[in-house]
């Protein structure tokens, strides 16, 4: 238990920063005059006070963090911060007389900070702008955290084979201690993330969105979160231009941010396209979108231009685990949404804010499967697993495989729980998959035209657990729950 | 291509033996006077003639078989023998004026020889006894082949981690050459299989079945095939005694036959219960059955005695991949059939005639997952994967993982194909899973009260491929399809 104080000390700092970010909806509430400012102000003050008090109590525990602290910290951030983030949501709901349970609020907060973008709220069009801003802003903040998690922390800990791209980031960063390394990496990644955010906001704005809409949908796009301020999601704008802009930014944001960062440092953009994972991610999304479009055209759902417009946007949105929709694609023949859901399991890059198994792991798995076939045909051939020029170590393959095992096990067990609770098989399976992939809309009654509000508290809890497991790459959460983790 | 002649030479011998086994339905046809003897006799003669001609042509190719020949031989046996086995089925169908396509007949033959037990025929109660005898007898013959495949051939080739129990069989068998080893193993396994068959037949007969019913249902039980002579499957007998007998034999037949064989040789029955996999298989089936029974009781589907009777029998039948049913369990709340289907993926032992991932592989996977968690918590601890007393080599783990990858990939891709062909998601997924596990009945429209006759030719082909992939442990079939396999 002596691991907890130094971790909580860092966490308390993050809590203060997170509470301060409530200034954004507070400001919006004041400007729009929706009368919700007391909720945000109270929450802000409570958060700052709690964080400061915790920080003060633990001031003696300033020490260098070890890798095991990293595991504890990421669990604390994604499990405990949403607990605090419930406060403004519940206060606002109370002010609006909107019925919302604590579990519903926690679901909403986890969904935001994990960039899942599933929602239990309906009637978004009539919600005050300050609330929608806060919901989408949480995704953007979550995205900042996820980048550090995915590029710096999990690879350093060797969670789920992330070691495979450790070398990539280690290149420009020489420091070997945990905190300075993470700090340096964070600065670089956030520079990329901020530039992308500014570009996306300006593009949406120039493309015809109002400033507030542009801001909120930029938050949801570059973080691959996919929450919209409208029940009709991105379909609200009905604009091929805006859809194209969103597609470009979803494609860009689905790739490894460490690549952009390294390419910027070395002033060498060719490095980006040389990356095997990046090419695979982009190819999968574009070919997947094309396949769905052609299928929709063949099945006479749309004429060719509309098939391309709807097929490409919704497939790229789901495959990148963003989760925007421009139409209720559950009305399409079931092969299309099923393929899109399948793509969401494996398309996003390992260093992005996307979810699922990640393309890097898929490539390693495919190479490992190929190696086994070659070994059977020619037992004496030496035959390492390669990714581009890099030979992948057996340890990495084992980590990747453990990750996939836990992923499948979580999918099966959580789906069974939902079926046991009375949901039909398709809804249960797709809700767990969409949550585990931090994607958002599922099939059945949790589809893009519906919301998670139809689920009861137990079912919401299962989905919340799935989002957390998916975001923490399962293993980080499992290991902290092991009793032997706490024995030194 | 020079690998083919020695393999086809052995295959031609097996073809002759298989053709001669048509003597059984021929005799039944003569005794019952159903007039179908010309179909069986013609088929028998054609098979013997083809086999003998092939054998004669290849008489010069008598040579010691290499492991790669083993891969080719198992593919030839399960892909080509059913092709010949279509002949009597189609001739009988023609004599009976029963409409049956070639693909339907091939499906039926593959289903028999892989001990899947799915059927495209309906109105079984009115089929001539000789045909039902032949269908169930094919399962029993298939079981003989599968035992050799699972205990001797695949482990020797290292397919899917079968190396893990190679030592177990290698114990009593000293010869290191392929053919004599396999011959010796075969004799031992078949002695076990025959004893079990005789015991099962006598038990069914003593329990009240007619001699012919006892014979046919013995064939389907000890092979874990699950084809019945009745549309109501095992429910036809409505006898708790017979159901109990069947349960005992399904439990016994789900365990590793090599264990029984070694225990018999060493006159030491304690070895059997000492086996980790065996205990896990039996525990899973019994606890699974109990769980389903209690669930049915809680959900008020039955009173407690009936819940136990129906829950235990159907769960053990599905988990062991037999596929008998005593009621239409799709009428139960969906959690129960779903859990049963899930158990069928992983309960049967690696050295049995069952299908799916197999308990041995599951145990190795669980150990590997545990190892990865321990490594994350304590990076410096050395931490091998153990099964009982045995340390599992990394090569074995890699093989197991490759198997599971292909299993999941086959499941996903073949399900997508069925969805693309117009089936609903639940039917598509469960039909592929039931075929891949060589189990039989699925959910949706291919449930226990229905048959695969509702599928069209394309859908039947997909299921046939799934049965073959499942039976040949996927990798054996994939490797033979690789172009590089044919380059030396
Ligand atoms: K999302
Ligand atoms: K079966």
From TrEMBL, chains A, B:
Any matching Pfam family: TrkH
InterPro entries the UniProt entry points to: Cat_transpt, TrkH
Coiled coil: none
Location relative to the cell: Cell inner membrane
PANTHER family xrefs: TRK SYSTEM POTASSIUM UPTAKE PROTEIN TRKG-RELATED
Similarity-based family: Belongs to the TrkH potassium transport family.
Name assigned to this protein: Trk system potassium uptake protein
